[in-house]
Structures
1.
Amino acid sequence: MTAPTIDTVALESGVRSYSRNWPAVFSRAVGSTVWDENGTPYLDFFAGAGALNYGHNHPRLKEVVLDYFASDQLVHSLDMFTTARGDFLQTFSEMILKPRGLDHRVAFPGPGGANAVEAALKLARKVTGRESIVNFTNAFHGMTLGALSVTGNSLKRGGAGIPLVHATPMPYDDYFDGDVPDFMYFERMLGDSGSGLNHPAAVIVEAVQGEGGINAARAEWLRALADLCKRYDILLILDDIQMGCGRTGGFFSFEEAGIVPDIICLSKSISGYGMPMALTLVRPELDIWEPGEHNGTFRGFSPAFATAAEAIRTFWADDTLERSTQAKGAHVESRFNQLVAKYPEHELIGKGRGLARGLQFGTAELAGQVCAAAYERGLLMETSGPEDEVMKILPPLTLTDDELNRGLRIIDESVDAVLGRS
C-alpha cells in the first residue's frame, strides 16, 4: 500500500523562514550546488548562512565522517576525553592558534553560536564582577535571551517577550557616515562620572556584521576599539561565528586588524561539514570557571570534532584558501561596483570583505525582489540588514571560478529584471 500523503507544511510552526522564500523541497547537495527532489539544480550562494564554508559534502570530510560512524566511535560524549576531541584540540592549537600568536583556552559551550555568545557574556561578568555589556548598532549575536540583549534588530528583540537589559548599544563603524569621530561618544560616556553609563564588563563586536547588513569595520576602527577596551579595563569579545573560518580571508576575521580579543566566539563552519559545534576561546587568565559551572548535554558532538580537525588539515596547512577567498572577493566587489555605476539613480552600495558581500538597495522590497528573481534563475541568496534592504551572498569558499561567474551573471540578470534595464 502507498502511505497516505501528509501535509508536512501544516505540521510545522509558522516560525520557519527560509522555506517561504525558497519553496523547493531540496534532496541532495554537492559542493556549491543543491538539487530539489525533481532534480532541478540551484547554485548555493547562501551556504547554510555561513555554516558551509567548504561546501556541501566535501569528499574528504564525507570520508572522515562515514569512517567515524562505521567504526563505532563515540558520538555523544559530553566533555569526556575522546580521541576525536583530543585530535581536534591538538590540530586547532598547532595549526590555527599558535601560528597566530594566540594562547586562548578552548571551551565547548554547546552546539550553536548562541551558546558560544552566552558563555562569553557569562564569563565576562564572572571575571569582572560587572553586569553591563556594550554592543553595537545593527549587531546580531543570537536568539537566546542573553544574545538577544546585545542584538540590535528590533524584530528579533521583540520576540523575547521580556525587557532585555544590562546592555548598552554604541554606534558601529561609520554609523554616522563619517560625521562623528570614532568612539567620541563612547569614550566621553566612559570618562564622564555624570554620564550614567555603568562600567561595562565587556564589549562584544563583529568585525563584519553579517545579519546587520554586511557592514565591515575598518581595521583602524577595530584597533581603536581594542585600545579603548584596554585603557578602560573592559574585556573585548569578538563574535566570529559567521565571519570566522576563512569567510573574510584569514581564518579569523580580526586578523587584518592585528588585534587579540580576550574572548572569541566560533561556530557555524568550525565543524567543516555543517554539523553542530561551537567554541568559546578565552585567554588563560580569564578561565576561572568552576568544574561544571557552564555545561550542556550536547557540547561534545564527536563526529563534528573529527570533521573539524580534518577541515583544518585540508584547508589551513597553507594560505591557498585565504588567497583564493581574497581574490574571489575582490572580483565580486568589482562586479558589484559595476552594478552600482549602472544604476546611479538607485544609489546602490556594494559592501563587505572577502566572500561576505552585499549589495544595498534603497528598500527591502527591491532587495527581496532581486533575491526572488535569482531563485527563479537557480541561485540561492538571502537578504540582511535592519530592513532586509541588503542582498547578501555567502557562497562556499571552495566554489570554482566558473561557479562564481555563473552566480554573478544571475545576479546581474536579476538586478536588471527588477530595476528595469537590460
Note: Residues 73-315 form a domain with the Aspartate Aminotransferase; domain 2 fold (CATH 3.40.640.10).
2.
Amino acid sequence: MPLETAAPVEDIAGADQEFLYTLNFGPQHPATHTTLRLILTLDGETIVKAVPDIGYLHSGFEKLGEDLDFNQYVTIVDRMNYISPFANECAWFTTVEKLIGIELTPRCKYLRTILAELARISDHLLCVGAAALDLGALTGFLYAFNAREKVYNIMEAASGQRFHPSYCRVGGLMADVNDDVVALIRDFVKTFRKVHADICRLLNRNRIFIDRTKGIGVLSKEDAINTSCSGPVARASGVVRDLRKDEPYLAYKELSGAFKIVCGKGGDCYNRYLVRMGEMLESWKIINAAVENLPSGPVNVDLNDKLTIPDKNATYRSIEGLIQHFELFMWNRRWETPVEEVYGANETANGELGFYLVADGTGKAFRARTRPPSFIHFAVFPMMMEGHQISDVPAVLGSLNIIAAELDR
C-alpha cells in the first residue's frame, strides 16, 4: 500500500514532523482479517502513533436485543464472537437467568460447561494458528484447524448447526445430547493432547517465532488493570483473575479442583501465546472431568414454572405442555420478569463477556448492553504499538485475538 505524507501530528513528542508518514494498515491486509483498519503514523518504519478503526459492520447487536425476546436473541449473540459462539450464549443466558432467578438442572450445568470449554479451545486454536500464520508458520495453522473441525462436529451433533449452534434456551438447552455426542466428546479428549503437543513442538522453541513475539507488545500488569483488560491478555501480564474461579457459575464450582488459572509475567506476545496454550490444557482437564461425571436427569428446568419452552414430548403428549407452548409462541405471551437492572458475565476465551440488562417486566430487554473483551483490548492496541516496527503489527494484533463483530455493535 502506498505511503502518504501525513499532516503534522502535533501531539507526538520528539518526532520530526517533516518525516512522518501515514500508512493505512488493513482492512485488506491478511493480518487484519478483512475488517480491521489501523491508521499508523510512521517515522521511517517506526510506529509513533497507531489509531484503530473499529470498522463499519453496522450489526446493531444491542438494539436488536430490545426487539427480540430472550430466546430469539440467541441467534444474535452467536454472531458476536463468531469463533466461540456457544460461550456467548452461556454469558447471555446466565444474565437472563440471573434476572429471572432460575436455577439450572445439574445436567444442564455440566453440558453448558463442557461445550463452553470446547468453544474456548476452538477459539484459542484459531488465535494461535492464525497468529502463527500471520508470522509465516503455515503448519501450525493446519494443526489447529484440524482439531477445530472436531469441535464443530460436536456442536453440529448436539445442536444441528456447526457454526452458530443457537443451542441454549432460558432455563436449559434446546434439547438433550445423545450418546453419539458424548462419544464424540470423549474422542476429542483422547486425541487433543497430541495436537497440543504438536503445536508446542513447532512453536515453543522456534527461533523465528520467539524473535517475532518475545519482548514485543509488552503490556504491564498495572496497565492491564488500569485499561480493564481481562482473559489471557490480562493474565499474561500477571493479573490473577478468572471468573470461573473468582465468581463461579455453571459447574465450575464443583470442578474447581480440576483446573488452575494460567498466568504469565512478561505481558508480551509470547506470554499471551503461552497462556492460551496452557489454558487449552486446563480446558481439556475440565471437559475430561465433566464428561466422566455427567449427571443424568433433565436438561431444562421443571415444566411447572411456565418460563421455559416445553419439551417436544410434553407439547405433543400433555395438555399442560401444549398450552404452555401455545401461550409462549402463538399468543406471544412471554415471561413476566422483575423490573430490575442486572449485570452478568462469563469468562470467555478472550476475557470477561458481560451483558447489562434493563428489564421492564416483559420477556425482552428494555435495554441490552454488551461488555465485549475485544472492544477493550483493541483500545489498548495504540499504547502497545508505540515504538515498534511495522513488522510487529501482525504479531501484536494476532496475540490480542480481536474479533471484529465485537467492535461495531
Note: Residues 61-301+334-406 form a domain with the Cytochrome-c3 Hydrogenase; chain B fold (CATH 1.10.645.10).
3.
Amino acid sequence: MFYLDKSTLQDKPDLRRLGKGTDWGAEYAKRQKSARYPALKRFYAQGAVSGDTPLCEAPLVALDFETTGLNPKTDSIVSIGLVAMTTQRIRCAQAQHWIIKPDTELKSKSVVIHGITHSDVADAPTFNRVLDELLEHLQGKVVVAHHKDIETRFLNSAMKQYIGEEIVFPCIDTMSLEARFSRTFKRTFLRSLLGQKTPSIRLTDCRSRYHLPYYRQHNALTDATACAELLQAQIATHYSDEATPISAIWC
C-alpha cells in the first residue's frame, strides 16, 4: 500500500461528484445500461447495497493493491488482495491474491517495498486476465480500503486501459473514518506551538491504537486483511447501535 499526495488525486468531475449522498441504486441502474464490457455490466446489474442496510448486515469486501509507484498515470498494479467480510466476520476462505504482470516498469524502489520481483511477474497474468474474477468478487458488496483513492484511481486507470471504461462503487475508507473518529487528529494552533505532531493515520498506526497485532506491510492480501480487522475494531469501538445504516460510514 502506497500513499498518494493531493496533486496526484485530482478526480475527474464525473467521479468526484459521487460520494456520501449518492443514490447508488439509481447510479448502478444507469451505468448498467451504458456499460459495454460484459463483466462490468454484470457488476452493475447485481445492484448496490442499500444505504439503509444495518452495519451488521452489510456485505463488504476489503481491497488492497501494490503498485509499481505512486502515480496512477505512469505506474500500474502489481498485486491485488481482497477478502470478503462483515462487521463480525472475515471470510478468509473467500480471500483472493493475484500477482499481476505490470504494464509499466517494475522499479527497484517499489521492489524493495513490496518484495515482488521481476521473476515473480515474468509468468504472471496481465490485469485483463483477472478483471472478470475481480469484478465478480466486488459485485454486490461495499468496498473497504485504507486510503481508498489509491484503489479507485489505480483500478480505473487499469480498466480504462484495457476495456475503455471505468467503475464506481460505494466505499468505506478506514483512514478517513479514523480521522473522523478521533478529535486528536484536528491539529490546533496551540498544538503546533507546543511542537505536538498530528497522530499518524497510516494503517499500522491506526491498528496499534485498537491493540491489533502488527502485520508485515506491503503484501496486498495481508494489508486487505489488516484493513478488514481495523474496520471491525472501529465499528465495535465507535458504534454501539447495530442498526446504524451502512450509509453512515460509506463515502
Note: The first strand starts at residue 60 and ends at 67.
4.
Amino acid sequence: MTTTTTPLETTELESKVRSYSRSWPVSFTRAQGSTLTAEDGRDYIDFFAGAGALNYGHNHPELKKVLLDHILEDRVVHGLDMFTDVRRQFLETFRSSILEPRGLDYTVAFPGPGGANAVEAALKLARKVTGRESIVNFTNAFHGMTLGALSVTGNSLKRGGAGVPLVHATPMPYDDYFDQVVPDFMYLERLLTDAGSGLNKPAAVIVEAVQGEGGINAARAEWLRGLSELCKKHEILLILDDIQMGCGRTGGFFSFEEAGIEPDMVTLSKSISGYGLPMALTLIKPELDIWEPGEHNGTFRGPGPAFATATKAIELFWSDDELERSTGTKGAFIESRFNQLAARFEDHQLVVKGRGLARGLEMPSGELAGKVSSLAFERGLLVETSGPSDEVIKLLPALTIPDDQLTAGLDIIDEAVAEVLSA
C-alpha cells in the first residue's frame, strides 16, 4: 500500500511497524455498517472490513446488543478453557448450523485469539500425528506472522522479518502459477514419488482456497479436488486456511465448499466472532485429535463476549441461504464492473480476479495500484492493495454492504483507475 506522511502527533509514540494508518492518515471515531467516520466528521465507505474480520459490518445492532447484555449481566469474559454456558452455546450452534448441514465432522480447538494461533496449532498437530517435520505450502501464500506461520508464507518481506532461518517447509506452485502450461501437481507428485528428489515426506500441505494477501488468487475447484486426492494418495494431511476467506467471504460458509472436499484440519479466525472480537478455531477430524491436555494452550482462548456474538452471528446469517445468495449476486456485480474497466483500458491488460466478495483488479504495477488506492481514499473510500508487489486492488467489503454503497464505492474506483491510467 502507498505511504503518506500523517499529521497525527501521537505517531511518535508508535512503532514504525504500523502500516494502514500510513495510507489512511486520519483518526476514525465511529463505525456503523460499511461506513467509517473520521474525527473531522467525514464519512468513508469501507471496502476493507477489518481485513476480513468484519464480514457483517461494523457494530451490527443485534450483535452489539448481545455483546452489551453479556457485559451488563456480568457474564464470563475470560474463561481460558473452563466450561461456560456461552462456550457450550457456541459449540452447539456451530455444530448444528454450520458443520452438520454440510456433512462435516470436526472437533473444535480454541488455540488462542488470532489466526496465527490457529495455524500454529494445526502445524504442530500435523507433525505430532504423522511424526514428520516437513510442510508443503504454496507460492504467494500468507498464513500469519509467527515463526511457524511465516515458514509457510511466501512473501519475502514478511519472511525476512523473522530474523532466523524458516525451515521445514517446501513451497510449491499454486494454481495457475505457470498459466496452466504445466499440468496440476506434476512437480509435487514427481518429488513425492522419486526416491532421489530430496523431499522429505511431508506431514501436511497447507493451502488457501483463495489467496487474499497473495493477490486475490482463486484456486479452481478441480485444482483443490486434485490436491485433496493427492494428499490422500500419499497419506499427507491437508490443512485448509480459511482465516480470511471463511465465514461466507466466498459465498458458502467455508471457501472450500464448492470443491466438495473435506480437509483434515481447517483454521478459522477473523469473522468467526461476528463482531471483530479476537477469536480463532482449529477444526480437526476427530481421529486426529490426539492432543494431551494442555499440550497446546493460551491465556486468551476462552473469549466469552466473542462466543456470544459468534453464536448470534450464526443464528442471524446462517439459518438459511439468503446471505450466501446475496454474496454471490454482489460478487458478480463487482466482477461485471471490473470487466468493464478491463475492457475500457484493454491496452493496460488489467486482470479481474477473485470469488464471492473477495475481489481484485490487478494493475500493471504496484505503483499504479497504490495511486488508485490513494485517490480512492481522497474520494472517501477505503480500499487496500495486495499481491507480491502490491499490484492488486483488493476488495473485501462487508457481506452486508447495501447495494447503493457498493455501487458508490465502485464508482470511486472507476474514477481513480481512469485518472491513473489516463495520466
Note: Residues 65 and 422 are 48 Å apart (CA to CA).
